[in-house]
Amino acid sequence: MIHMRPYNSFETKNVKFLVDQQIEFATIQITETGLKKSILDATAPVRAYFEEKNIHDYNLQLQGPEHKRVIDTYIMTEAAQFLTKTSLYRPVTKKGDPRLWVNKVRDVEFLRANDIFALIAHKNILFVINLSIVDIVKVCLSSIDTPLKDLILGLSREKNSVSDELLRLIKDRMTDWMPAEILADTGIGRTVESILGIEMNPSKNPDFKGIELKSHREASRVRNTLFTQTPEWAISRLKSGKAIVEEYGYIPDGYNHKSLHVTLTANRPNPQGLGLLVRTQLGLLEADEFSLATLEDGTFRKINDVAVWKLIKLHERLLTKHRETFWIDAETKHESGREFFRVSEILHTKNPIPSQFDVLLDQGQITVDFLLCRDSGGDTYSFKIKGKARPLLFPQSETYNLRGT
């Protein structure tokens, strides 16, 4: 697994400014080998960002130079921009590991091994900024207009306009009582998306122009779903949801086959003996079987491995799904066998902290629900967070009170 080095203080200042301006970007380190050979590994975060922004999907790309993809690219300096191309490809050798290279990057400015670049995708064009050299903060706060300043502040205004548009739509359409489309746990969420013209689909990307929507009943104290993610079966002891059900499932009343609908937490094992173990040093989250008997130190003895997730993959899902989120609270009432609702409050969050995700998992504030069935398929593994823990994961937030609007 390729790990990028930590940011230095100059790079940290640049990254913080981009985050504060709500700029979505990926970062990549220019390794010494990469600089010599004009070749860079397209790391998992970069691949996920390219796919999210509809720039490129390496999973669909065949190996060999004839399948290379070329993207129009601007290299941004403090004072100017230079048009070039970025090559995205999978070589014939070494299993076709995803690669990229920004052409002519050496010709534009002083470039050192181990510099870190920010990659910003916008309207099918890639913008590349050397975070180790370019003072983004100085450029954007200057009275002088430059291409870099226009790019960053323009994207920031665009991002704010989307959240303003969404808030306006909710105020206009959802602050009066209206019927939920279906009488079910998901009834309000489905109705909100329907009113906003969002079609139901299995996409892992946010719902409304980059903003994720999470709706729930105001009186409900249920946990909020962050995302779903299947375990890494290749490194898990059990290789499928069916195998987990066979070993740990039960037959519910009225059924003739096994199911497993349970919550796993790192605090204590559930009645099936299943729980979570955060292995930060190994970069893993484990679903394990534990003894139900408490040890002298208050912990539980692990008996067996069950399934595994890579923490970096979970971080990618979190950042992709929740760069910006509207958590919608709704008042509800029932009349003539139907449920009615109106939006009362919205928590608007931005830029979750991946390291906090691991801490909250370990503290039992984030849990995993197994919804598995041996025969029907469609297994889900839902990562959920308790409402009181949201500010710890999403420190940038704003609350909109819509009562009486």
UniProtKB/TrEMBL annotation:
CDD domains: PDDEXK_nuclease. Residues 175-394 form the MvaI/BcnI restriction endonuclease domain. The keyword NADP does not apply. InterPro entries: MvaI_BcnI (IPR029127), MvaI_BcnI_cat (IPR043004). Keywords: Endonuclease, Hydrolase, Nuclease. The keyword Lipid biosynthesis does not apply. GO terms for molecular function: endonuclease activity. It comes from the Bacteria. This is MvaI/BcnI restriction endonuclease family protein.
